[in-house]
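Students often ask why we bother encoding 3D structure as a string. The short answer is that it lets us treat folding as translation between two languages. Here is a chain of 84 residues written in the first language.
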Amino acid sequence: MKEKLQYISNNMKSYRIRMGYNQEKMAQILGISRITYCDYEVNPQKLKIETLQDIADILRCNLSDFFVQISVTESNGIIQRNES
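And here it is in the second language, the structure alphabet:
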């Protein structure tokens, strides 16, 4: 379970960066404080599934994308799923 929480945390950040958003922008879109959004990235167990779905919608990914290990190619922002 702890591994999946780490995937969520890492993937939220990776997808956010890919979209060119900082934590302040995500918080603004969600209507929450930056501190709350930052806490979601660091401690995703505090997230309600509805909020996680809202974040996935904003980041143009599927909810399931948060639960697998991904890698980001820095040069072109490509996100690859590592489903092992």
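Translate back mentally: The chain has a mean pLDDT of 86. Keep this in mind for the problem set.
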